[in-house]
Amino acid sequence: MAVAVLLFLVAVAAFALSAVSGGGAGLIVMPVLGLLLAPAQVPAALSVGTALSSFSRIVSFFRSIRWDVVVRFVPLALPAAWGGVWALSRLQPVYLDLLLGVFLIGNLPFLLRRGTRTPGVVRPFRPALLPVLGAAAGFISGFTGAVGLLFNGFYHRMGLRKEQIVATRAANDVLLHLTKLWLYLSYGMLTGPALRAGLVVAAAAIAATLLMRVLIHRLHDDLFRHVGQAAACIAGVAMLFQAGQQIVRQDHMQARYATHAGEAVAMLSWRQHVFSVEIENPGDIEFRHVHPAFGSGQVPRQGEGWYRTSVLHLSPAQGIFITRRLSRARPA
Prior knowledge:
There is one protein chain. The protein has helices at residues 2-21, 25-36, 42-60, 67-88, 94-105, 108-112, 130-144, 152-157, 162-186, 192-212, 221-250; strands at 254-260, 263-270, 273-280, 284-292, 307-315, 319-327. The longest helix has 30 residues, at 221-250. It has a 6-stranded antiparallel β-sheet, with no helix packed on it. By secondary structure, the protein is α+β, with helices and mostly antiparallel strands. Strand 3 and strand 4 (284-292) form a beta hairpin. It contains 11 helices and 6 strands. It starts with a helix and ends in a 5-residue tail after the last strand. It holds the Pfam family TauE. Belongs to the 4-toluene sulfonate uptake permease (TSUP) (TC 2.A.102) family. InterPro entries: TM_pro_TauE-like, TSUP. It is a multi-pass membrane protein.
């Protein structure tokens, strides 16, 4: 119950911010949904909320919709969304979430930059590329459940005003989300808990849209852009944190560092691989990779099966060379 209340409050704040910035609520809500649902159910629950949110924004900003953008964006977005949902049914999106988090944090330099660009400095986005943009948005949205602020910069480069961005994105998204909901249901991802969590998000989204309906008309375009960039950075940090935790847990990732007799060793284990860097005196460096050989399936640190070791040596005396060997026991 406490997590559900937290989800509602976070969703209200996220969708209120999204109404001002033009998107990004889903990326902020995803970490909280991850506390309630299995990773494969998070995109389905998110799509329930964002679909109803898009409906409410279409009603509120219908006159600002740029239909010329919608008719180019949607046709390829729908089949691409199927590809994203199909990939989600077979893969975990955690590494894509990690990359999206890095991409979103890339908005930080634009947020910290002083002054504003003149319109002539911004390279315009050609409408002919909208089908490609729609396909990319559809696939990523189907795979992760949200696209949010990833593509807002393209709308700005097309010269759309803030009301037009909010309305046009909602029109683009509503058919996409309905298609995804049908696909999630077909693949068994729209479960009872996912539907209930999605309805909580939907209620919060509609409340936020009603609250922010008047405010958006009073915002300066530059402030609108900066709010969007700030939201992107916040969402990126949240995605990096959540994805990092999940990767460490599911892939048994561990890191170690030790020094002994003037030598320093840093080691990282990931799945069935061990990567290490060893610095020896006087200035010799070794980059080592250990992994199971011959499909043994044994984790190197277990000390069983055959292991393949590859070492890149950097030595002032001997130069650069690579050695490889097989061993029955775990290499030291």
